[in-house]
DNA sequence: TTAGTTTCTGAATGTCAATTTCAATTTTCC
DNA sequence: GGAAAATTGAAATTGACATTCAGAAACTAA
């Protein structure tokens, strides 16, 4: 978390951005939870203690975090973009429960390797990828 | 293609839908091309020869095809949903060029297998998945 | 500290694709 | 042919994201 704040501050400095209490607030709330927040989610959470904060401010901050490389934008196809704090070197993909919406992370180097092979076969250079498995999580299978 | 029309007709019958010239037209245009159409794309293409056709009609037809299992909805994160004809048993994933937008299909059973292993480790039951590699296609690397 | 400059905030508004509405039309079935 | 039901397509609505703008706050230099 300290690393991420440092990275963000450096990025903000480079961009000539000012320090504002709102941005600090949003950054801390964002980093302090393992959640996969949509703008809406984080906005509603922050409003509880900071009723004056604006949706646009939260939205701009999250986009900024993504630009600075301390957040990744996720799209699980439900019409809402989610943001996840990015810990350097901790790439992972997601298991998304279609029943309860829970999100679990996974990482499988052998898949990444095969991906590279596939790309190489097509003369394709991978910049990024998206790999999501949708289905029922262990809890929802039980309830099934 | 005949299979898909048969599947669709059966699905339409079950749903108590009527046969209309527009839907037939849209279905044929959709199946007759390997493209990954957005509603907009297909609408514009159809309008050339059928100026009276409506956007909503095309949109409804494509959603219906997806419901009937002869099309899959794709979202490459560019703000437009694309539809691809689904040939039974021919699952594949996509390489998406971020430069020219070209879409190439790939299939790698070993990745599918590893996916299942990952899911099993988490007690997760996969219903569907999404796996996309974004980057530069061979043509765009050359132009680079 | 203070004046001056620049950025930021937040309410409101704009944008864009997806979706819905509804009156007119078409299909289906008797 | 005619009634009932579904479909069409223009227009309006929705919903998420993005932008605008006037006032507020943060920096900068003297």
Rg value of chain A: 17 Å
Q: What portion of residues of chain A is helical?
A: 40-55%
Ends of chain A: how far apart?
38 Å
Structural class of chain A: alpha+beta
Biggest interface between chains = A-B, 34 and 34 residues
CATH superfamily of the largest domain in chain A: Winged helix-like DNA-binding domain superfamily/Winged helix DNA-binding domain
Summarize the structure.
With about 140 residues, chain A is α+β, with helices and mostly antiparallel strands. The first copy, chain A, has helices at about 1-15, 20-30, 40-50, 55-65, 110-120, 140-144, and strands at about 35-40, 70-75, 80-85, 95, 105, 125-135. The longest helix of chain A is centred in the N-terminal third of the chain and has 14 residues, at about 1-15.
Overview of this protein structure:
Two copies of one chain form a homodimer. The first copy, chain A, is an alpha+beta fold and 144 residues long. Chain A folds into two domains: 2-85, Arc Repressor Mutant, subunit A (Orthogonal Bundle); 93-143, Dna Ligase, domain 1 (2-Layer Sandwich). Helix content of chain A is 47%, strand content 23%. Chain A has helices at 2-15, 21-31, 39-49, 55-67, 109-121, 138-143; strands spanning 37-38, 71-75, 81-85, 93-97, 103-106, 125-136. In chain A, the strands form two sheets. Chain A has a three-stranded antiparallel β-sheet with strand order 1-3-2. A three-stranded mixed β-sheet of chain A has the order 5-4-6. In chain A, helix 2 (21-31) packs across helix 4 (55-67) and helix 3 (39-49) packs across helix 4. Chain A is globular, with a radius of gyration of 17 Å. The model of chain A has no long low-confidence stretch (mean pLDDT 94). The A-B interface holds A 75, 77, 95, 97-98, 104, 106, 108, 110-111, 114-115, 117-119, 121-138, 141 and B 75, 77, 95, 97-98, 104, 106, 108, 110-111, 114-115, 117-119, 121-138, 141. The structure holds a DNA duplex (30 and 30 nucleotides).
